[in-house]
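Chapter summary example.
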Amino acid sequence: MTPEHRVPRRTFIGLLAAGGAVAVAAVHELLHPTSAGADAEPASRRAARTTAQTQANAAADGVVLLGRAYLQANPKEADRKYLLAHLPGIDAARDVRSQLPALQPAVVADFTVGRVVSVEGWQLSYTEAIAAAAVALGA
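The structure predicted for these 139 residues follows.
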């Protein structure tokens, strides 16, 4: 009989938390990409280009697509007030997208306790899923 290779529980939870943090950072980078040449471009031109790109790519926005898919699978949660009430620390007077980085502790906590949902093949924390749903509803 061969000995089993076991990962201690604390190590496993730490890896889950780190993975959640990496996921939040990756989503943040997708939402707010940086580029080496951004400083060379005038701010007014960059703002106009960004606005045009945002409008042109609104249908292809990954957060919105995931949010819509989550709402399709969970239609009872398709209520802006309900979603905002379940997003810890979110200011309902501001748009949710700009506040996504503030949700990182809740996302990590979700992954730590296994509060995970599958959306379009993605494993998201419950907080990520309802935040995406809120963004999809225009919150």
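To summarize the output: The helical segments are 9-31, 43-56, 62-73, 80-85, 104-113, 126-136.
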